[in-house]
Design brief:
22 strands; single chain; two-stranded antiparallel sheet; alpha/beta; 4 helices
Length: 459
């Protein structure tokens, strides 16, 4: 206990309590100042300081401590002003608290406001605003329901409402927009007129500027560099901190989505998301596998890539821009003809519907061509790369189609040859017929020209 007692004896709190005790004793023993309790404290008003609390006031239960604090109040009641010119312009406002030189100095009729700090809510005329810190909500005019805690928090706001800023310079540049929340040093500090943004963490959404809406950054420097993007959500230290103008992105985890800059509609969970790609999903700890799910009678397949951490539908890209080492398939696809399609039902622990399925068995396909199979982290066959199977089938079909075309060409050539031969035979037959006719004619002529036979008498 002795070290603890010594620690308390030396602590700043002990010195502070001692000073406070001296001050209270001095106030109790000192003679009353000229401006204390005018009119014998009528209406439970209390004033301490030169020109503090308008002596002609009819308001009730006001407390003014400091030069010209509540100096112009007429009917305002239940106000507390501590500091030179605190609530100095207030006339009819009620239930306001101003602690600090010139805190709520220009408030005339605003109600339920609280200002703690030098020139906190200095220009305020609105209602239900709270400002804690030097120049917090300094320029707030007629706006209502704002909360600023921290030096210069919401400093430039004039007409924006329902904003909350906690942290030095949080939402410092906002002027007239509503429904923003910033918690942390420099959180949303560049935003001027965006709405419904949420930043929690040091420098979260720091560079969001104009007309940027519906962004949420939670974590140290989360979405720090977004300038004009909308509907971005980041959770984690520096999560999504490289996004500049992209929209509708979601990043979860420390440094998640750090590869996204102007991409939109992308999701990064626990990974940096290599490449500035829109409309993509990136996940940590994926295996090279194909996820199969039933939806009614339809089987859907999703590919997972370890190298990129990308999750997406099969055959995500087909452009030459994304490919290399491009070669004709040729004989690679020949093994596809040995595959054995089967019918099946998934086990109950995988799918409870019991719907029949139609496809291939990964182990059988691996025996034919291992490149047509996804393997799990243990190296065992997991699923079939059906998007590659149809490409092989297409190649075999085209090869067979080419053979058929060649055969059809040969048949056409044969038909042409036969037709020519038939024509030649017809010509030959006609010639033979003509020759036969000529031979017959000549034979007839020969018969006619033969001399008549003579008979000789025997003597």
């Amino acid at each position: 206990m002795k070290p603890l007692i010594r620690s308390i004896n030396r602590s700043p709190l002990r010195c502070g309590f001692f000073t406070l005790a001296i001050a209270l004793t001095w106030f109790a023993l000192s003679p009353p100042a000229n401006a204390q309790c005018p009119s014998n404290c009528i209406g439970n008003n209390t004033a301490l300081g030169n020109n503090a609390l308008n002596p002609a006031t009819t308001g009730l239960a006001n407390t003014a401590v400091g030069t010209s604090a509540l100096a112009n109040v007429t009917t305002g009641s239940y106000n507390v002003a501590i500091g030179g010119l605190a609530l100095g312009s207030d006339t009819v406002g009620f239930q306001n608290m101003a602690v600090g030189t010139e805190a709520l100095a220009n408030n005339i009729s605003g109600n339920f406001n609280m200002a703690l700090g030098f020139r906190a809510l200095f220009m305020n005329t609105g209602n239900r605003n709270s400002a804690v810190g030097a120049a917090a909500l300094r320029n707030n005019a007629g706006a209502d329901d704002n909360t600023a805690i921290g030096s210069t928090a919401l400093n430039l706001n004039t007409t924006g409402e329902h904003n909350t800023a906690v942290g030095s310079a949080a939402l410092v540049a906002l002027t007239g927009s509503d429904n923003n929340t910033a918690v942390g040093f420099l959180a949303l500090s560049s935003l001027t007129d965006g709405t419904e943004n949420v930043a929690v963490g040091r420098q979260a959404l720091q560079n969001l500027t104009t007309t940027a809406n519906w962004n949420t950054g939670i974590g140290d420097q989360a979405l720090r560099n977004v300038s004009t993007g909308d509907h971005n959500t980041a959770l984690g230290e520096q999560s999504g901190d490289s996004i500049t103008t992209g929209d509708n992105n979601i990043t979860l985890g420390a440094h998640a989505g750090s590869g996204l800059t102007t991409a939109s509609n992308s999701v990064a969970i626990g990974v940096s998301a290599p490449g500035n790609q829109s409309n993509r999903t990136f996940l940590r700890n994926l295996t090279n596998s194909q996820i199969q799910s039933f939806n009614g009678t339809t089987v859907k397949y999703v590919t997972a890539e370890v190298a990129t951490g990308r999750l997406g539908i099969t055959a995500v890209v087909s452009s030459r821009r994304y490919k290399y080492d491009i070669k004709p398939m040729e004989k690679v696809s020949e093994g596809i003809l040995a595959l054995k399609p089967v019918t099946f039902r998934l086990k109950k622990e995988v799918d409870t519907s019991g719907l029949p399925g139609f496809g291939l068995i990964a182990e059988d396909v691996e025996e034919v061509n291992p490149d047509l199979v996804y393997h799990n982290e243990d190296g065992s066959p997991e699923s079939v790369r059906y998007d590659q199977v149809w490409a092989c089938l297409l190649n075999e079909f085209l090869k067979e189609h080419k053979k058929v075309e060649e055969q059809q060409t040969s048949i056409a050539d044969l038909k042409s040859t036969v037709a020519l031969q038939q024509k030649e035979m017809q010509v030959l037959t006609a010639q033979l017929k003509e020759q036969a006719a000529q031979i017959q004619k000549v034979s007839a002529q020969i018969e006619v020209s033969k001399p008549a036979a003579r008979t000789v008498a025997n003597k």
